[in-house]
Amino acid sequence: MSMIVRRLSRAATAGLVAAAALTAAAHSAEAADTLGSAAAGQGRYFGTAVAASHLGEADYAATLDREFSSVTPENEMKWDATEPSRGTFTFTSADRIVDHAQSQGMDVRGHTLVWHSQLPSWVSPLGASDLRTAMNDHIKGLMGHYKGEIHSWDVVNEAFQDGGSGARRSSPFQDKLGDGFIEEAFRTARAADPAAKLCYNDYNTDGVNAKSNAVYAMVKDFKSRGVPIDCVGFQSHFNSNSPVPSDYRQNLQRFADLGVDVQITELDIEGSGSAQAADYTKVVQACLAVDRCTGMTVWGVTDKYSWRSSGTPLLFDGNYDEKPAYDAVLTALGGSGDPGDPGDPGDGTASCTATYTRTADWNSGYNGQVTITAGGEPISSWTATVTLPAQQSVSALWNGTPSLSGNVMTVRPSWNGALAAGESTGFGFTVAKNGSDAAPTVGTCTAS
């Protein structure tokens, strides 16, 4: 398998990642009407939760790559996924997300190191001494694998109870190690990767209430004693029963005033239409009003894969069409308007189409050609995805800049990005069949 499609070691990919980051940055500069590029213009990131199992879906990958500048693995870095047996770590799914993000020049948030939920069965029965060792070993093992590659870690997640008491949540860590387990986790995390931002993350802390007051008191205490905490994450899951609080911005600001960054980490808002759009606007405006609000992450790319799918809480519907909430967020971030459907020629926006032809064929392989044609307006750049049958692999590609995630190849121009209205260009590639003669699938072409 060629260097284009082989998963290289992390050390060997440093140059490739840097080059991809430059490509992604150039793409963002060209595509001013995306969430990531608009947020970057405000000095923030705009991210999304990602599931490794969906990266092989062309529209999912294309929407992710086009719109977002940061990713958070949805489940792939949690304890049950990364250390199912004590001392035996598995990183395959998490690596797939990190590698994809790096190929697109995106930041990665690590989620999560210590949490009472999604624990493998071997953790809870441990005695206090064993549990302390296991917790610290897990932090060191997971952070050590990704040292230097994760922007921010949710070190401890959801350690406080709901309701009016402000008490700690019962968990194996709280019950056996006591209040000090959170501080210990942060100190271990700092030693494991001194460059990473270390966050505490929780839900129902968006306004001033007993739970957020308890978190506030903990953060204030940590800062006064030099405990290494850099940021606080606000999950911000909203619906009609739990709306955006009127003191949302003030609450973010009071945490920022303690000397920590604040991040909106798992944003979703159930609803539709203008009401949902207005609520998303409130959240974005609150973050932009707080200097130390460094970024926002929506909890998923598309409604159809949301954990609250029946509430349609995200910015893209199940067909990956932009919702009014998308337009509202883009506008609030200072974007220059609705970019429309990038695959719809003739609507006054940048658009393109991609068509595939097999140009040569032999027993063990074939050559393919993808033709890119601009729509009714000139374009300055394009992106196309090609999904290969599982057995096949690409051994060469020309007239394009590729990146690979699983069997999905995302291609951007090398020299041939600018096209006049109706003009065509393309890229070619050589495929090793490896027993499969099936044709690849070309996804939606996006243009700027």
Structural class: alpha/beta
Radius of gyration over C-alpha positions, nearest whole angstrom: 23 Å
How many beta-strand elements?
18
Main pleated sheet: 8 strands, parallel, barrel
Average per-residue pLDDT, rounded, comes to 88
End-to-end C-alpha gap: 33 Å
Unreliable spans are: 1-31, 338-347
Q: What proportion strand?
A: 15-25%
Number of helices: 12
Helix content: 25-40%
Strand order of the largest sheet: 1-2-3-4-5-6-8-9
Overall 3D shape:
globular
Order of helices and strands: HHEHEHHEHEHHEHEEHEHEHEEEEEEEEE
Description of the structure:
Helices cover 31% and strands 24% of the residues. Helix 6 (128-145) packs parallel to helix 8 (180-192), helix 10 packs parallel to helix 11 (273-289) and helix 11 packs parallel to helix 12. It is built from 12 helices and 18 strands. The protein has helices at 14-30, 35-41, 58-67, 79-82, 92-103, 128-145, 172-177, 180-192, 210-225, 248-256, 273-289, 324-332, and strands at residues 45-50, 70-73, 107-115, 152-157, 197-202, 231-234, 237-238, 261-269, 293-298, 352-362, 365-374, 382-387, 393-398, 401-405, 408-412, 424-432, 441-442, 446-447. The strands form 3 sheets. An 8-stranded parallel β-barrel has the order 1-2-3-4-5-6-8-9, surrounded by 6 helices. Strands 12, 14, 15, 17 and 18 form a 5-stranded antiparallel sheet that branches. It is globular and about 65 Å long. The longest helix has 18 residues, at 128-145. The chain has 448 residues and is an alpha/beta fold. The model is unreliable at 1-31 and 338-347 (pLDDT under 50). The chain starts with 13 loop residues before the first helix and ends with a strand.
